[in-house]
Protein: Pentacotripeptide-repeat region of PRORP domain-containing protein
Organism: Prorocentrum cordatum
Amino acid sequence: MISVCEKGRLSDKAMEFFDEMQASGLTPDIITFNSLISACEKGRQPDRALQLYEDMQRLGVWPDTVTCNALISACEKGAQTERALQVFASMQKNGPAPDVITFNALISACEKGGRSEKALELCDTMERQGLAPDVITYSALISACAKGRMPERAAQLFERMEQRGLAPNVITCNALISAFDKGGQAENALRTLGDMERRGIAPDVVTYNALLSALAKSRMVGAVLDHFAGMQRRGLVPDAVTYGAVIGACERGQLLEEALEHFDAMLARGLVPEPGTVVALVGMCERAQRPSDAARAFEAALRRGMLPDAALRERAAEAYERLGRPGAALEALRGRQAPPSSSARPWAARPAGVAAAEKKQALRAAGR
């Protein structure tokens, strides 16, 4: 029954059966503990998994590689990188011997915990112990390099993976594009997308989010709008991160009307904008001397459930001050919803065709 609960992701129910088992005088074995720890891993309960790890040893049940792999994975999902490394150190000292799954979970934990150098070090350890990295290993390593802002190292790992006859998948390519994004290498990000298409690897929303972010940072506004349209032609549905990159590009290209249209589209999809996206939009409205639209953008985002950060609260308060609404400014600084400043129309009247003209200008500048 515990194994059934584990496969069904019912960690609490699994623990209930475990308690009943002990109350009945039955002695749990390695299979029982492995199922329980795996259930905790799936339920994102690393502390409970670690307690079971201690309990089994106290009862004289020695953990095997499956136990440790599930435990390290539980720590990875629970953002407890140091605990995962401690479990691995115990394995190195006392056994059992780690396998590829062990290292993959540990490298992923280091990647999520921002320990890029440690992830690379673990890959070296893995190979010294005679274990061959697989695609999962390389994907996690490249992602770690992305978080560590090491695009050149990420590219080297990608090349090494190919030299070893391993075919990249969409996760690997997404990690590489993310590395180029964080390293300010938009052209390399574009080349990677082209490589994916030649290999028959279908890009997903994560692919385009990283690509659009890279292009926006390089002020390639026309390319952002072009690829944004292209992803939708593929049938991919933009998310809040996608719209954030597009609106950020519009800010760099001073395309206010285009940005407002994308903000409208994002809200129409029921998406909650990120604070940074609204900061960019509010800033554009203020520079265009349109504080009423800045206030409306802030209010619309709050209604969607966005939690404003300090930078956004400050920007919104400035807009309310310009509108002669000091009370609303104070509420904005407190992160609260002010009384609506708009009529039924969400934005100030916009000249017809302005956004389309802005977009055409940006695409011409990109040579498209």
Notes: Residues 170 and 337 are 41 Å apart (CA to CA). The radius of gyration is 26 Å.
